[in-house]
Hints:
Layout: H1 9-12, E1 32-34, E2 38-40, E3 44-47, H2 55-59, E4 65-69, E5 77-81, E6 90-93, E7 96-98, E8 116-122, E9 127-132, E10 142-151, E11 155-165, E12 170-181, E13 185-187, E14 191-193, E15 198-211, E16 214-231, E17 236-257, E18 260-276, E19 282-300, E20 303-318, E21 322-337, E22 341-354, E23 360-374, E24 377-388, H3 392-396, E25 408-422, E26 427-448, E27 456-479, E28 482-497, E29 515-525, E30 528-538, E31 540-542, E32 545-547, E33 550-563, E34 567-576, E35 584-586, E36 589-590, E37 595-603
Parallel strand pairs: 6-9
Antiparallel strand pairs: 1-2, 3-8, 4-5, 6-7, 8-9, 10-11, 10-37, 11-12, 12-15, 13-14, 15-16, 16-17, 17-18, 18-19, 19-20, 20-21, 21-22, 22-23, 23-24, 24-25, 25-26, 26-27, 27-28, 28-29, 29-30, 30-33, 31-32, 33-34, 34-37, 35-36
Amino acid sequence: MLFSFIVAAGLLSAGKPYVSGTHVPDSIQAVTVTADKGVVVSRTDTLSLRNSFTVSDILHQSPGLYVGDNGGVAGLKTVSLRGMGSPHTSIYIDGVKVGNVQSGQTDLGMMGIAHYGAAIVDYAQNSLSFNTLRPVFRDRGVAGNVRLAYGSFGTLLPSARMDFRLSDRVALSANAEGVVSKGNFKYGDGQERVNNDIRQVRGGLDLFGLMTSGDWHVKAYVNSAERGTPGSVSWPSEDRQKDMNAFVQGVLRNCFSPLYSLQVSAKASYDDIYYTSSWGDSRYGQTEVQLNSSHVFDVCDWWKMSFAADLRWDGLKSTVYDASRLTVNGAVTAAFRLDRLSADIGLEYGGFFDVDALSRNVLSPSVDFRFMLLEGLDIVAFGRRAYRVPTFNELYYVGYGNPDLKPENAWLTDVGLDFIRTLTSSWKVNAKIDGFFNFLTDKITSAPTAEDPNIWLPYNIGKVRSTGLDAVVGFVYESGGWECSFDARYSFQSAVDVTPDSYSFGERIPYVSKHSVVLDASVAWKGFELSPRWILRSGRYDSSGELPDWNTLDLTLSRKFALPALTDLTVYVSGRNLSDCRYELVTGYPMPGRSFIAGIALSF
Length: 604
């Protein structure tokens, strides 16, 4: 896993927003407003980027998430939430959705983490969001950082960022980073995982602006990589993959009056994947255009109304098939903010129109509320219908697709308690517990055809019941130069196939851990910081039966030096999977054992 490490931004950056000398009021700060949902309370969890080097590292902090990793830097990396499957989990960058209509799985390997703030898991909206760090200008108009790390498996990780204050209201940020790795590592009884090399370059430009009563953000991003695709250990391959992702997007938020606020966003993107295989070469080019808007009306002090409307067009051209889709979303939400109660009631419409195919229309009601039982103790709950429209591969892939598939239909429910209390000026404690029940119908499952049992096609015949419990407890201590924190997270999940007459009826969904534990700590004093993290996953299954439990211990030590001219230098070393546990997140795709990385970072 280490050879895919992106330079440790969490150790080296502070996520403070850029602000000018002019205060910008925000009358909708009390609620979350996203371009495609409107006003929502939601049930969220914040995952820190501290001591995380890849997106997978971040997501493993949440026991309720399943991270799919095909092993090593070149492998596909996906995420799913509470047994729902990765196509159900939406990924957002700066409030704009990342799409993949071909397979429905967003490859998180396209993202570095060096220039993002904390990741937000939204259980009600079944989503994961990343936001770009805003520039922080000390007493001058230029700031930035340069980072370089080297680690196991012949891995080199350069990274740089420059921030420019163009005026009191406008700032520009430019960043670039690379990953170069041989990628080969030992697994099992001394076998070597080969064809796992990668050469990857990412770069972006961000333009931030403030207005009298709002702000805007324009982002351009490109990712280009050439990598091996080694296949499973049972079916190794020498196949290669070239991929390129590029997009331009913009978000504008403005409060036109105390009664009306607007957020609009737009995006244009292009993804290109080219496979070189012994079975024949293939290419997939995806084009996406989005236009999103959200309108918030303050009816009175305690009542807001939100209307959201989105348009999205996706086109796919490949060597196998071509397809396109127009998606129309609309949502209306009533939000109530009383002294002790916050509640939202909403209804969302989704229309999906494919060329030369049947249209699909879905209505999704939702309700969220938060009630303060005592000072610092809240009860929260939500219920929502969610759906997942079939991907292009499931509908149109030659010899496999089924154009008559319906959207997967799910009901998500959750009830929990939040506790946050400041005990003294030095001690803060927090705790959270959630029970959830999700029920998925019309699950898309591959099954033999009646005409020929050797030919499998996708059908809407699956049902999944997912129940569980998430619990978090933590504390923060700050006194006398010491800064200490500790978080313990536990998740129990039971995601079971309840499809009538299914060959897997009563069996658990593959790879979903029954028990998950994450222990995360940090101790800092006079520039030194020591951060251990221990992760346990147990009770996993696949089609062959029970899978081995696994646990990993990571340890990071850093030292920050204050240098003249408001510059600091950070030196760090990190050991990953120090117990050298040999494990697989996906059967047949081993993860690396013990590995190390060391690096330096200069901020100015």
